Amino acid sequence: MNIKINNNAYWANPGETILQVAQREGIKIPTLCYIADLTPSGACRICIVELSNGQLVPSCAYPVADGMEVLTNSKKVRRSRKSIIELLIANHPQDCLVCVRNGCCDLQDLAAEYGVRSYRYVGEKRSGKLDLASPAVERDPEKCILCGRCVRMCHEVQNVGAIDFVDRGFYSNVAPAMNRSLNTTACVYCGQCIVACPVGALREKSYLKQAWEAINDPDVHVIAQVAPAVRVAIGEEFGMAPGTISTGKIPAALRRIGVNEIFDTNFAADLTIMEEANELIDRIKNGGKLPMFTSCSPGWIKYVEHFYPELFDNISTCKSPQGMQGAMIKSYYAQKRGIDPAKIFVLSIMPCTAKKFEAGRPELSVTHTAPDVDVVISTREFARMMRLAGIDFTRMPDEGFDDPLGEATGAGALFGASGGVMEAALRTAHFMITGKDMDRIDFTSIRGLEGVKESSIKIGNATLKVAAVSGLHNIDKFLEDVKNGKSKFHFIEVMACPGGCINGGGQPLPSSPEKIKKRMEAIYEVDRSLPKRCSHYNDSINALYDTFLGKPGGKKSHELLHTHFFKRESI
Amino acid sequence: MYINYNPSRNGELVPQKGNKMQSEEIYKKYPKNEAPNMIPMLQDIQGIHGYLPEDDIIRVARHLGVPTSRVYGVATFYNQFRLTPLGKHVIRVCRGTACHVKGSLDILQILETELGISAGETTKDMQFTIETVACIGACSIAPVIVIDDKYYGGLTSKSVYKLIKEYTKKD
User: Model pTM?
Assistant: First the structure.
């Protein structure tokens, strides 16, 4: 059908909204409550456009009709949008200078775009209590503009539903059931609500204070570990193009901040692969529970603990790479260097908010006195740390990670993207079973940003059916099949966040599908560019097994690298 | 027993239907995982208890296969649902235009001060609940309050004090 936008003719498909046509044609309409692909809510009204009869309609929820004439930027539209922004600001704490989202806030940007220069409306503001009780995600209800993006993300994408709209009218707010704190809910701390939030109403719990205290204390040996997805995203915080790979700049910056040693979580990812591939083969050969689900995404693990405790036996017992690295630092490394583990402080830099919760799991402690990972900071917090330390990240030289837990292969890097753990594990499983590598180690059929990717692979004379799933709403179908004994799969990788860690709740903001795509391409570029691309060729891993652990799946490995799960109650 | 203000019956307070059905029967009556039944289910539960106990909000969520936050959201959105038990006596203060002009705000404030609670709350001894109503359609005798099923019109500060004393004495 034909429609006119701003007096220019465009072709539109039936069922499309005005906003979809405008975005496709490069006509800018501001949005606040809109998230592509999710139910439009039309709550904020910022995307209003004028129809030929003078009516103002929300373009995100208004379907096109043949012959429709739309003005996206008439005087009436501009005035209305400005009023909407002024009304939103009237019920918002005007504390931008001290807000964590200062400089990357949709409301702030809109106020600037529409030339808001004064607080025109003054009135009573909605009050709300800060919710600081969870170890990972904080809520500041007074900053909430009720766009509902977090609610749709939590319900429609992550299938958790920890928060929803509560009360009505002036008292409307977004809160967990019974207005309790997030830590009483089934919140998995994936942080996708933070990614969705246009303002500072949802944010990660910051552990920068503890990190700085450890760095400033000369008696503490601070060791950092850096997750695979951080190196393909951190550059965005400093104006570098999305997808820029900063592997070498990160250790350089950390050394200048004063961190004593910098290890690579990719090393631990390689170690995870050795254990996980071994576990998969063991389950297949010895009739263990299948399919086996991966266990490296802490949001996913908490989801299972809340909703599918009966399927614990199907979850790989491997700790996540963060957990394995923490355990190796406080056992193997401490022993090798003769350092008292109590003097070691492990600082994790993760693309994830759920890792903050994972680090606090009491079972993840090889010393039984302190957690293996002392503090987790997100990619965003790491950027803040560098700014405070006066580091010009763009001009950092390329430096390497430290031994003995710093060497990594391309397989370890793949953990950052959905499908990566599967690909890395299959490379090593193939080698463990057949004694030789796959002809083509690129397993492209489970790459990409789709939420569900299924494939099969022939190893020896067996065919394995595998799937990589991201975004928790996609996983229920697979779990129900397992429950009913109908699952045809052998191995299923699950990442809580859509697209995997590259789109984690701790990654640089604002996010966009294009940026996630670039980060994913960068992950595969890191893999491609490394001389060794299979975990079993990592010399440091082999040395670790030879001198300390024994063999994959051995007694010591089980003690240090494997874990168990707990049924969790929630409201 | 749950009492419901029913405007269609001329302001009479009538017991909600189904008040004798016990909790367990409600959970049997509604099939599992059918979320559209949420509101009738909550109404039935309120019919038994006079309000929605937290445990039932959680149980309804589990029963219908929806997040507890969604049930809580619905329960707090609609005025018909209460999250706290009603007192023995329910005092409804009309805050309509006519009553307002005739000083119903003073009357509300006297009640709130005397009973030590705000509108929408129940006294600790579970004797009184104060609620405000937009208009109860008895403007000719404004300002008016309704205690349980009795109308009291033409109130003054003095007569309100007297009225509360009477009700406190009764018990």
Answer: 0.90
